[in-house]
Amino acid sequence: MIRAIIFDMDGCLADTEPIITAASIRGLAEYGVAAKPEDFIPFVGRGDDLFVGGVAEKYGVPYKVEMKERVYEIYLDLVGKDGKPIRGVPELLRKIHDSGALMAVGSSADKVKVEANIACLGVPREWFTAVVDGTMSPKKKPAPDLFLIAARLLGAEPAECAVVEDAVHGIEAARAAGMRAVGVANTLPEAELLSSGADVVRPGTGDVTLADLGLEA
């Protein structure tokens, strides 16, 4: 029986993938990297050190953590103005909250970014009993560690958890954790998420039902 829902953040709850990509392009340009939006696709969902650093190194520029820090400075300015929830997210979160299920965030991003994204969702922060960010484990998705930490903080067994994800690495992490995996095709094609092992895939987060999550028959 599912009693806890763990959400990825970027591209799943918050419509922030275009914002972090734009911030990364601007930030990396200051280090001589002329990045393009498509350069970041292989690194989605794997933490921002790799999201920024993988692209820098693709262009032959050694990664420094100050690159990510600069990207975050730009990102926080942009998300404060343009950040918003994915279509239907506030309504879905309310349904889950009203059902009595627990909710958590399990994101590979750093805490400062995760908290900024939660603030743009338009729901009470306390609805999320646990918030797990990428600084809480050295292993990022597709490793299951972030989701297992979330389950432990929620007081739930992995088999009692469902994960909502928009990235292949996130689906793989959920499966590795022994959790139900619900894919949302906000970022990638539905077929790609299904082939990565999702139990069910919906066109967007707002299309997910309580039944998809295992919260009702």
Structural class category: alpha/beta
CATH topology of the largest domain: Rossmann fold
Mean pLDDT: 96
Strand content: 5-15%
Order of helices and strands: EHHHHEHEHEHEHEH
Globally, the shape reads globular
Query: What is the CATH H-level superfamily of the largest domain?
Result: HAD superfamily/HAD-like
Beta strand count: 6
Low-confidence stretches: none
User: How far apart, in Å, are the first and last alpha carbons?
Assistant: 11 Å
Radius of gyration over C-alpha positions, nearest whole angstrom: 16 Å
- Discrete helix count: 9
Could you estimate the helical fraction of the residues in percent? 40-55%
Identify the strand order in the major beta sheet: 3-2-1-4-5-6
**Name of the CATH class of the largest domain:** Alpha Beta
Main sheet overview:
6 strands, parallel
* Architecture per CATH nomenclature, i.e. the level-2 architecture of the largest domain: 3-Layer(aba) Sandwich
How many independent structural domains?
A: 2
